[in-house]
Amino acid sequence: MYQNQPINRWILEDRPREKMMNRGMGALTDSELIALLLGTGHKKASAVELSKEILNSVNNDLDLFARLNCEDLCKHKGIGKAKAIVLMASFELGRRRNLVINKEVILNSSEKTYKYFKPILADLNVEEFHIALLNQRNKLIKSVKISQGGISATSVDTRLIFKKALDFYATRILLIHNHPSGNLSPSLHDNEITSRIVELGKLIEINVLDHLIITNNGYFSYADKNLL
Hints:
Shape: elongated
Oligomer: single chain
Order of helices and strands: HHHHHHHEEHEHEE
Low-confidence stretches: none
Strand content: 15-25%
CATH class of the largest domain: Alpha Beta
Strand order of the largest sheet: 2-1-3-4-5
CATH topology of the largest domain: Cytidine Deaminase, domain 2
Radius of gyration: 22 Å
Structural class: alpha+beta
CATH superfamily of the largest domain: Cytidine Deaminase, domain 2
Mean pLDDT: 86
């Protein structure tokens, strides 16, 4: 209907900005919301059409969309670094919005730990290893990123883990890392590092409560599987 026409030539009720002002954000489609961020398309496609093209490239999956990096986005005609950065900034704001920081965060179950760390780790394209430092009541003192690796692995310095625990007077810790592949099964390396950290924790009386593997589709808990 609007092929190759700029948005300012569309009928009023179909323009994303005007539609939002008149009917609210909820009335906009995903592609229209993205078009608002892009502002413009290119000579052969409007901002909305360009947005649809990007969404189609990830099968209209917003989780996959949020994992696109600058290089991925710039593959689309009409997307330069400036627009890619705007989109990536919106992804990051969304992640931070999901991290509702309460005065007191209690991580006393694998489900609560997953809900807390999913916005941080699930959308990443590389593996990261984090720890949650807890007190005796399982209250979160601080979360710390220990390492960042590649698509399928990241190295873990056990000395750094326990240094952080001691620095913040944590008596309990949780181990958390992501699998960008979506595979929930722990690797041999995951099992080895978990056993090593648990045993070292016993020596200095810091209890390792769990190790979670996080993906967009769910999580694996060593504690739930009685593997600690």
